[in-house]
Protein backbone atom coordinates (compact mmCIF):
# COMPACT_ATOMS: atom_id res chain seq x y z
CA UNK A 1 0.00 0.00 0.00
CA UNK A 2 1.13 3.50 -0.72
CA UNK A 3 1.36 6.34 1.77
CA UNK A 4 2.64 9.90 1.96
CA UNK A 5 4.18 11.78 4.86
CA UNK A 6 4.52 15.54 4.88
CA UNK A 7 6.88 16.72 7.58
CA UNK A 8 5.70 19.90 9.22
CA UNK A 9 2.05 20.85 9.27
CA UNK A 10 3.04 24.53 9.31
CA UNK A 11 5.99 26.24 7.66
CA UNK A 12 6.66 29.95 8.01
CA UNK A 13 9.16 31.84 5.85
CA UNK A 14 9.97 35.44 5.17
CA UNK A 15 9.15 37.00 1.84
CA UNK A 16 12.09 36.39 -0.48
CA UNK A 17 13.36 33.39 1.47
CA UNK A 18 13.71 29.83 0.24
CA UNK A 19 10.63 27.64 0.50
CA UNK A 20 11.15 23.95 1.29
CA UNK A 21 8.18 21.67 1.85
CA UNK A 22 8.99 18.05 2.59
CA UNK A 23 7.28 14.96 1.24
CA UNK A 24 8.28 11.33 1.72
CA UNK A 25 6.39 8.42 0.23
CA UNK A 26 6.09 4.73 0.80
CA UNK A 27 5.34 2.56 -2.20
CA UNK A 28 6.21 -0.90 -3.44
CA UNK A 29 7.22 0.55 -6.80
CA UNK A 30 8.33 4.03 -7.89
CA UNK A 31 5.04 5.89 -7.89
CA UNK A 32 3.60 8.84 -9.71
CA UNK A 33 3.96 11.91 -7.49
CA UNK A 34 2.06 15.18 -7.45
CA UNK A 35 2.07 18.46 -5.58
CA UNK A 36 -1.17 20.39 -5.28
CA UNK A 37 -1.83 23.83 -3.78
CA UNK A 38 -5.08 24.91 -2.18
CA UNK A 39 -5.87 28.57 -1.59
CA UNK A 40 -8.61 29.49 0.89
CA UNK A 41 -12.10 28.63 -0.31
CA UNK A 42 -10.80 27.03 -3.47
CA UNK A 43 -10.17 23.58 -4.85
CA UNK A 44 -6.81 21.96 -5.44
CA UNK A 45 -4.58 23.22 -8.21
CA UNK A 46 -1.83 21.07 -9.68
CA UNK A 47 1.63 22.57 -9.15
CA UNK A 48 3.71 19.82 -10.75
CA UNK A 49 3.95 16.10 -11.25
CA UNK A 50 6.57 13.38 -11.61
CA UNK A 51 5.78 10.28 -13.64
CA UNK A 52 8.92 9.15 -15.47
CA UNK A 53 12.03 10.71 -16.94
CA UNK A 54 13.83 13.72 -15.52
CA UNK A 55 13.83 13.66 -11.75
CA UNK A 56 13.86 17.46 -11.38
CA UNK A 57 10.41 18.69 -12.24
CA UNK A 58 9.48 22.31 -12.79
CA UNK A 59 5.99 23.50 -12.10
CA UNK A 60 3.92 26.63 -12.09
CA UNK A 61 4.56 29.76 -10.02
CA UNK A 62 8.31 29.09 -9.82
CA UNK A 63 8.03 25.85 -7.86
CA UNK A 64 10.06 22.74 -8.54
CA UNK A 65 10.52 19.34 -6.95
CA UNK A 66 13.09 16.60 -7.18
CA UNK A 67 12.29 12.91 -7.12
CA UNK A 68 14.92 11.05 -5.11
CA UNK A 69 14.30 7.34 -5.24
CA UNK A 70 17.05 6.50 -2.76
CA UNK A 71 15.49 8.81 -0.19
CA UNK A 72 11.86 8.11 -1.21
CA UNK A 73 11.37 11.86 -1.24
CA UNK A 74 9.73 14.47 -3.44
CA UNK A 75 10.38 17.77 -1.70
CA UNK A 76 8.92 20.99 -3.08
CA UNK A 77 11.09 24.10 -3.33
CA UNK A 78 10.91 27.69 -4.49
CA UNK A 79 13.96 29.97 -4.38
CA UNK A 80 12.13 33.10 -3.28
CA UNK A 81 8.81 33.15 -1.46
CA UNK A 82 6.11 35.60 -2.38
CA UNK A 83 3.20 36.68 -0.23
CA UNK A 84 0.84 35.07 -2.75
CA UNK A 85 2.40 31.66 -2.03
CA UNK A 86 0.64 31.47 1.33
CA UNK A 87 -1.64 28.45 1.04
CA UNK A 88 -2.05 24.78 1.92
CA UNK A 89 0.16 22.38 -0.01
CA UNK A 90 -0.58 18.70 -0.51
CA UNK A 91 1.76 15.99 -1.74
CA UNK A 92 -0.01 13.03 -3.38
CA UNK A 93 0.98 9.64 -4.74
CA UNK A 94 -0.48 7.04 -7.06
CA UNK A 95 1.03 3.66 -7.89
CA UNK A 96 1.61 3.30 -11.65
CA UNK A 97 -0.29 0.06 -12.16
CA UNK A 98 -3.20 0.99 -9.93
CA UNK A 99 -5.51 1.05 -12.94
CA UNK A 100 -8.57 0.00 -11.03
CA UNK A 101 -8.44 2.59 -8.33
CA UNK A 102 -7.06 5.61 -10.20
CA UNK A 103 -7.20 7.52 -6.94
CA UNK A 104 -4.67 9.66 -5.17
CA UNK A 105 -3.33 9.16 -1.68
CA UNK A 106 -2.76 12.55 -0.10
CA UNK A 107 -0.39 13.65 2.59
CA UNK A 108 -1.79 15.53 5.56
CA UNK A 109 -0.85 18.90 4.08
CA UNK A 110 1.51 21.73 4.96
CA UNK A 111 0.29 25.25 5.55
CA UNK A 112 2.78 27.79 4.24
CA UNK A 113 2.83 31.22 5.83
CA UNK A 114 4.84 34.02 4.27
CA UNK A 115 5.85 36.86 6.54
CA UNK A 116 6.46 40.34 5.12
CA UNK B 1 -10.12 29.57 -14.02
CA UNK B 2 -10.93 26.00 -13.13
CA UNK B 3 -11.88 23.57 -15.90
CA UNK B 4 -14.08 21.60 -13.54
CA UNK B 5 -17.21 23.51 -12.57
CA UNK B 6 -19.12 22.75 -9.39
CA UNK B 7 -22.49 24.12 -8.37
CA UNK B 8 -23.63 25.42 -6.02
CA UNK B 9 -20.61 27.00 -4.33
CA UNK B 10 -22.38 27.04 -0.97
CA UNK B 11 -25.27 24.97 0.31
CA UNK B 12 -27.06 25.06 3.64
CA UNK B 13 -29.60 22.35 4.26
CA UNK B 14 -31.54 20.76 7.05
CA UNK B 15 -31.18 17.13 8.00
CA UNK B 16 -34.46 16.21 6.31
CA UNK B 17 -33.80 17.97 3.03
CA UNK B 18 -32.89 16.45 -0.32
CA UNK B 19 -30.40 18.33 -2.46
CA UNK B 20 -27.89 17.62 -5.21
CA UNK B 21 -24.37 18.76 -5.94
CA UNK B 22 -23.37 19.07 -9.57
CA UNK B 23 -20.03 18.80 -11.35
CA UNK B 24 -19.25 19.37 -15.01
CA UNK B 25 -16.10 19.04 -17.10
CA UNK B 26 -15.53 19.43 -20.82
CA UNK B 27 -11.97 18.15 -21.08
CA UNK B 28 -12.99 14.75 -22.42
CA UNK B 29 -11.92 13.07 -19.21
CA UNK B 30 -13.40 9.64 -18.60
CA UNK B 31 -12.70 9.31 -14.87
CA UNK B 32 -14.50 11.47 -12.33
CA UNK B 33 -14.26 11.60 -8.55
CA UNK B 34 -16.00 12.89 -5.46
CA UNK B 35 -13.92 13.85 -2.43
CA UNK B 36 -14.92 15.11 1.00
CA UNK B 37 -12.62 17.58 2.74
CA UNK B 38 -12.96 18.62 6.36
CA UNK B 39 -11.24 21.75 7.63
CA UNK B 40 -7.47 21.51 7.87
CA UNK B 41 -7.51 17.95 6.46
CA UNK B 42 -6.62 16.44 3.09
CA UNK B 43 -9.37 15.36 0.71
CA UNK B 44 -10.86 11.93 1.37
CA UNK B 45 -11.99 9.87 -1.60
CA UNK B 46 -15.70 9.01 -1.69
CA UNK B 47 -16.49 7.70 -5.19
CA UNK B 48 -14.77 7.04 -8.51
CA UNK B 49 -16.51 6.79 -11.85
CA UNK B 50 -14.65 5.33 -14.79
CA UNK B 51 -16.29 5.52 -18.21
CA UNK B 52 -19.56 6.49 -16.53
CA UNK B 53 -19.63 3.42 -14.32
CA UNK B 54 -19.12 3.45 -10.58
CA UNK B 55 -15.81 1.74 -9.93
CA UNK B 56 -15.02 2.74 -6.38
CA UNK B 57 -17.27 3.39 -3.37
CA UNK B 58 -15.17 4.01 -0.28
CA UNK B 59 -17.82 2.66 2.10
CA UNK B 60 -19.74 5.90 1.92
CA UNK B 61 -23.09 5.99 3.78
CA UNK B 62 -26.14 5.54 1.58
CA UNK B 63 -27.35 9.06 2.35
CA UNK B 64 -24.84 10.04 -0.33
CA UNK B 65 -25.85 8.79 -3.78
CA UNK B 66 -23.64 9.49 -6.80
CA UNK B 67 -24.83 9.61 -10.39
CA UNK B 68 -22.99 10.00 -13.68
CA UNK B 69 -25.58 10.87 -16.36
CA UNK B 70 -22.95 11.24 -19.09
CA UNK B 71 -19.22 11.58 -19.54
CA UNK B 72 -19.26 15.30 -18.69
CA UNK B 73 -21.52 15.35 -15.67
CA UNK B 74 -21.31 14.01 -12.16
CA UNK B 75 -23.93 14.49 -9.48
CA UNK B 76 -24.00 13.77 -5.78
CA UNK B 77 -27.50 13.39 -4.35
CA UNK B 78 -27.87 14.14 -0.66
CA UNK B 79 -30.63 12.98 1.66
CA UNK B 80 -31.02 12.92 5.42
CA UNK B 81 -27.52 14.18 6.09
CA UNK B 82 -26.01 14.57 9.53
CA UNK B 83 -24.21 17.61 10.99
CA UNK B 84 -20.89 15.76 10.69
CA UNK B 85 -21.38 15.71 6.92
CA UNK B 86 -20.69 19.43 6.83
CA UNK B 87 -17.56 19.81 4.71
CA UNK B 88 -16.15 20.95 1.39
CA UNK B 89 -17.13 18.50 -1.36
CA UNK B 90 -14.68 18.43 -4.23
CA UNK B 91 -15.17 17.00 -7.68
CA UNK B 92 -12.21 16.01 -9.84
CA UNK B 93 -11.63 14.48 -13.25
CA UNK B 94 -8.77 12.82 -15.09
CA UNK B 95 -8.13 11.00 -18.34
CA UNK B 96 -9.40 7.46 -18.11
CA UNK B 97 -6.86 5.21 -19.75
CA UNK B 98 -5.39 1.84 -18.99
CA UNK B 99 -1.96 3.28 -18.46
CA UNK B 100 -2.06 3.43 -14.71
CA UNK B 101 -3.10 6.99 -14.28
CA UNK B 102 -0.07 9.14 -14.86
CA UNK B 103 -2.34 12.00 -15.74
CA UNK B 104 -3.20 14.37 -12.92
CA UNK B 105 -6.61 14.98 -11.49
CA UNK B 106 -8.18 18.36 -12.11
CA UNK B 107 -10.25 19.70 -9.25
CA UNK B 108 -13.21 22.01 -9.07
CA UNK B 109 -13.49 24.72 -6.41
CA UNK B 110 -15.90 22.62 -4.40
CA UNK B 111 -19.26 23.03 -2.74
CA UNK B 112 -19.16 24.10 0.88
CA UNK B 113 -21.96 22.21 2.56
CA UNK B 114 -23.41 23.08 5.94
CA UNK B 115 -25.95 20.83 7.64
CA UNK B 116 -28.17 22.47 10.22
First-last Cα distance of chain B: 31 Å
Q: Major sheet of chain A, described briefly? A: 6 strands, mixed
Shape, per Cα inertia axes of chain A: globular
What general form of chain B does the structure show?
globular
Multimeric state of these chains? Answer: heterodimer
What is the secondary structure topology, with strand pairs?
The complex is a heterodimer of chains A (116) and B (116).
Chain A: E1 3-5, E2 10-14, E3 19-21, E4 24-26, E5 32-38, E6 44-50, E7 56-58, E8 64-68, E9 73-78, E10 87-94, E11 105-106, E12 110-115
Parallel strand pairs in A: 2-12
Antiparallel strand pairs in A: 1-4, 3-9, 5-6, 5-10, 7-8, 8-9, 10-11, 10-12
Chain B: E1 4-7, E2 10-13, E3 18-25, E4 31-37, E5 44-50, E6 53-57, E7 64-70, E8 73-79, E9 87-94, E10 106-107, E11 111-115
Parallel strand pairs in B: 2-11
Antiparallel strand pairs in B: 1-3, 3-8, 4-5, 4-9, 5-6, 7-8, 9-10, 9-11
Question: What report would you give on this structure?
Answer:
The complex is a heterodimer of chains A (116) and B (116). Chain A has no helices and 12 strands. Helix content of chain A is 0%, strand content 50%. In chain A, the strands form 3 sheets. In chain A, strands 2, 5, 6, 10, 11 and 12 form a 6-stranded mixed beta sheet that branches. A 4-stranded antiparallel beta sheet of chain A has the order 3-9-8-7, with no helix packed on it. Chain A has strands at residues 3-5, 10-14, 19-21, 24-26, 32-38, 44-50, 56-58, 64-68, 73-78, 87-94, 105-106, 110-115. The termini of chain A are far apart. The relative contact order of chain A is 0.33. With 116 residues, chain A is mainly β. By secondary structure, chain B is mostly beta strands. Chain B has strands at 4-7, 10-13, 18-25, 31-37, 44-50, 53-57, 64-70, 73-79, 87-94, 106-107, 111-115. In chain B, a hairpin with a 2-residue loop joins strand 7 and strand 8 (73-79). The mean pLDDT of chain B is 91. Chain A binds chain B through residues 32, 34, 36, 41-46, 49, 51-52, 90, 94-104, 106-109, 111, and chain B through 2, 4, 6, 31, 33, 40-43, 45, 48, 50, 55-56, 90, 92, 94, 96, 98-102, 104-110, 112.
Amino acid sequence: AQSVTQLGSHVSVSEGALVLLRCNYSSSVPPYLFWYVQYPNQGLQLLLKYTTGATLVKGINGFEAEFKKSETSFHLTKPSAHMSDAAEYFCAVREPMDTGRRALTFGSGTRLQVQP
Amino acid sequence: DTEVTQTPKHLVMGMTNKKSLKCEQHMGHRAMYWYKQKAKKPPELMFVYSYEKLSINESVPSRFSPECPNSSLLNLHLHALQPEDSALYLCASSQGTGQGGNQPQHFGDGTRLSIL
